[in-house]
């Protein structure tokens, strides 16, 4: 199975056809939320898990769903596109047309606030009681899911965004200790220089969202957990000298990256490390599944460590599922949400995807070496919310930061303009 995600431009026509088709089949709804035929024995699940380890995780979750709810048909509404960009565009069109899927994937946290404000998703706090999720989800996670006393999604997993993946053979070729980690971003630069001298790519990245992922980890490394979190609650000044210094480090890191980055998506950048073309890749821990799928062994074929300067901090994101207002098959959606929150569902899904369960009663021994370290870290580290993956800021803010980052990394703006653009994005 290929790890290369389909480009948005290649699927635009297909998305338009799919949207029209779905509109025609879901437009004749009754007031009780079921279809005109009265059928509620199916569920359309809208995600961006269309290939690679993400698709493997979805397939595993569907397998559990089919066992738990054999009378309900699963309809795969997956749309390809890095970090969900293509899926989110189509989803917004459907929601605005009052033609929602039965449930859709979203990142838990601030990303949901736009859907909540627009009245597009329902409060599902009662399902937490019905499914006994308040007993098995950590209190800190529940607080991050709660908006004005209500919960609007059920997370299927926990991911960590601030991880470095490395190729030991490339590091050894550069005269570096392949087991080394680095205390700060500044400490990392000499190693990147050593790799650059060999002609290999020191740090592989891909399209804009992966660059924003890198940006947030640099801000976290240089500002610390409190300073980073302050960027989103107004306590940290985006125009401060400390932010300038962090952006300078980001600019320098980008100078070590591959020149073809803007035409790639995250699996391509990770594949460069797997294939020995690049030394390091900053990517969320979904990357571990790509290494494992390629038959690579941790410690021998690849290593991993928190982004320099972020050890002891867990940069959190979670894929979660909602119950849209006007879902045509609400009972099917609730059945899917039950599976998503179940121990069996979370175990199967996360074993395939590389993330860790949101539930505290999962058995660590069921998971890989890396996942066991992540489970430990999530239990003891300081937790912060990811920017690039919807936990820290609303979609509009993230979009503005992404636009500013793209301008900066393609040379269309300088550092001072970039910092000003970032400050304006958060102010808006």
Automatic annotation (TrEMBL):
Keyword DNA-binding (UniProt): no
Residues of the signal peptide: 1-26
Transport is among the record's keywords: yes
Keywords associated with the record: Signal, Transport
GO cellular component: cell envelope
Main location: other
SUPFAM superfamilies assigned to the protein according to its UniProt record, in alphabetical order: Periplasmic binding protein-like II
One Pfam family linked to the record: SBP_bac_1
Location of the protein in the cell: Cell envelope
PROSITE patterns assigned: PROKAR_LIPOPROTEIN
Family membership noted in the UniProt record: Belongs to the bacterial solute-binding protein 1 family.
Entry function: Part of a binding-protein-dependent transport system for a sugar.
Protein name: Probable sugar-binding periplasmic protein
Organism: Sanguibacter gelidistatuariae
